[in-house]
Design a protein that fits this description.
The protein is about 70% helix and about 0% strand.
């Protein structure tokens, strides 16, 4: 793994850590209607991203960065982020947060699968990935229809379905974003602002009642906008372009148990054997898929006859390797 790729993957890991708090913070703002909450959090995210990029790049750097993305990158990112979050906020308002969150966290496994299915990558799809997918599907069945305290009303089922569509939306976006590989992440400032505007328009169009957030909900929305939505999605944009995508998908499986634990500790979910079993299935499925997606080491072609490998020559005292700057 190159230094740049390793750094980008580490940045992606930081985003995953922030997302472990996403379900709990979203659940704490359940009193605020879906599209109103979406508009507020993404407006905060746009401001936070603007301040951050301006501090790092300056105004000139930000203006230049906004011109670098092709149209397809703008469309993919704006549509995917808006759709994912609208569905995610709805899922955690319609269904029990712990179950909806775990179903949503099938996306890391789907990233590993789509990395092998969608042309343009280097990951090959094999038996371990398929078995991992089956385990993830079994976890979903256990959460929705298995034994234990699982809510199965019509409203909750709609929430589970929204969470499942979330998983497909985010995994497809992550892999396609990797394939497009548009330079820079400064356009995420505008993407967040566009998502805020789209959410506000939907809030008005469907006739949601405006609710003034109380102190607790306000803190949750502020934390969401700065962290799991603002900083995390800028970091993920960079990581999916320059990091190891299959490894990112595998590392993302640290988020489900952490997210579930935070929900239980915050009183938004009750601990149960069903929840524990589903969490273990999700994590085990990801680990299996990630193990199977490791690439083979490239075979080094032999040097033409008469040529000497500089590294071998250096090792034999015939010369010294150049100093790294």
């Amino acid at each position: 793994m190159s230094r740049e790729s390793g750094s980008a993957t580490a940045i992606g890991a930081a985003a995953i850590g922030l997302w472990a708090c996403l379900a709990a913070l979203t659940g704490a703002s359940r009193t605020v209607p879906t599209f109103e909450a979406l508009a507020i959090t993404f407006a905060i995210a746009a401001v936070a991203a603007l301040v951050g990029f301006t501090a790092m790049r300056g105004w000139a750097g930000v203006r230049h960065g906004l011109t670098l993305w092709p149209r397809k990158a703008w469309i993919l990112t704006t549509v995917a982020i808006f759709a994912y979050h609208a569905l995610y906020f709805a899922a955690l308002r319609l269904a029990p947060p712990a179950q909806a969150s775990l179903i949503n966290y099938l996306w890391p496994l789907l990233i590993v699968l789509f990395s092998g299915l969608i042309p343009g990558g280097t990951t090959k799809l094999g038996g371990p990935q398929i078995l991992g997918a089956i385990m993830g599907f079994a976890a979903t069945l256990l959460l929705v229809g298995g034994p234990g305290p699982v809510e199965a009303s019509g409203t909750a089922m709609a929430g589970y379905l929204a969470a499942l569509v979330c998983a497909f939306t985010w995994s497809l976006y992550s892999v396609l974003n990797n394939r497009i590989n548009a330079p820079g992440s400064e356009p995420m400032i505008v993407v967040c602002a566009l998502v805020a505007v789209l959410a506000a328009l939907c809030h008005l169009a469907i006739g949601e009642t405006f609710v003034m957030p109380d102190f607790g909900a306000s803190l949750s929305l502020l934390a969401l906008g700065i962290g799991p939505i603002g900083a995390a999605f800028v970091a993920w944009d960079h990581a999916t372009k320059h990091g190891k995508l299959a490894l990112l998908g595998a590392m993302s499986y640290a988020a489900p148990p952490l997210s579930t634990l935070i929900l239980v500790l915050s009183g938004q979910a009750e601990p149960s054997l069903t929840l524990l079993a589903a969490t273990l299935l999700v994590v085990a499925g990801a680990g299996l898929a990630a193990f199977g997606s490791r690439l083979k080491r490239p075979v080094v072609s032999p040097l033409p006859e008469g040529e000497v490998d500089a590294r071998s020559a250096a090792g034999q005292g015939l010369g010294k390797p150049p100093e790294r700057s």
